Amino acid sequence: MSSDMHIFLFASLDSRQPLTARKVHLRRLFDVLELSIQRQDFERAKRAWAILARCKEIAWKALWTTGLHILSLNDATERRIENCVEYLRTMMLQYPDDRESILKELVFRLLLQGRCREALDELELYLPSFPYQDNPILHTYAGLSSLYLAQGDIASHVTKFDPILMRDAQAHLEHAKTLDENNTITKTFLDRITTLQKGREDIQDESDDESMATDDTPPERKRLKT
User: Fold this and answer.
1) Among 97, 19, 37, 99, which residue's Cα sits nearest to residue 73?
2) Which residue of 83, 87, 97, 134 shows the fewest CB atoms closer than 10 Å?
C-alpha cells in the first residue's frame, strides 16, 4: 500500500483521499468528533465540532444532525431543549434543502416542552404546501397537537372540548393514516377521539333528558279564593 494513503475511522462528506496536510488534519479531527460522540465524551466532541464548523472546507450545514446531537446531550434539560429549538429555527432558515427533516425535529422538541400551540402554528405554516402535505409524521404531530389543545384546561377536570380543534385533529390523523397505513399511533388516537366524542354525546343526551324531565313537571294549580 502506498505510503501516501491515509486510513480514517469514519467517512466524511468528502470521501476522497486528502491531498494536503490541512485536509488530512480535518479528516483526523472529524474522526475525533465521531469517536468522541460514540464514547459519550461530549466536551471533546463539542470542541472538535466548534473547530470544524469554522472551517470553509466543512459543509457544516449539511451536518446539522451532528450539531443537534451534541446540543441534545449538553447542559441541563430545559436549557438543552431550548437551545435545540433555537438551533433548529436557525437551520430552517440557513439550510432549506433539508427543511422538512428539520421541521420534524423542531416540532418534536416543542411538543416535549408542552408548547403545543407553537408546534401547531409551525405545522400550519408548512402543511398546506408540498412536500410537507405528504409527510405522515407531520400530520400525526398536527393531529396530536390539535387533540391536546381541543381539551382545554385539563387541570379543571371539566369535560369540554373545542369542536373545531377536535375536527382538525381527526382530519390530520386520518390523513396520516392514509399516507402510512402501518402507523399504529394514528389508529390509537383516532379511536381515542371516537371515544371522547361518544362520551360527549352521552353527556349531552343525559342533559337533554334532564331538561325534558324538568319541563314535564305539571305546574301547580292556583287555589281559588272563597
Assistant:
1) 37
2) 97
Structural domains in the chain plus CATH codes: 16-58 (no CATH), 60-113 (no CATH), 116-211 (1.25.40)
Please compute the mean of the pLDDT values over residues 43-56 and round it to a whole number: 89
Rounded to an integer, what distance in angstroms lies between the CA atom of residue 1 and that of residue 71?
40
Distance CA 143, CA 107 (A): 12
Residue type, 47: R
The pLDDT assigned to 14 comes to 57
Sorting pLDDT into bands at 50, 70 and 90, what band is 215?
low
Q: For residue 172, give Cα distances in angstroms to 104, 115, 142, 178, 190.
A: 15, 18, 6, 10, 10
Q: Would you state the pLDDT for residue 221?
A: 55
> What's the burial of 209, exposed, middle or buried (CB within 10 Å: 0-12/13-18/19+)?
exposed
- Asked if 114 contacts 125 with a C-beta cutoff of 8 angstroms, the reply is no
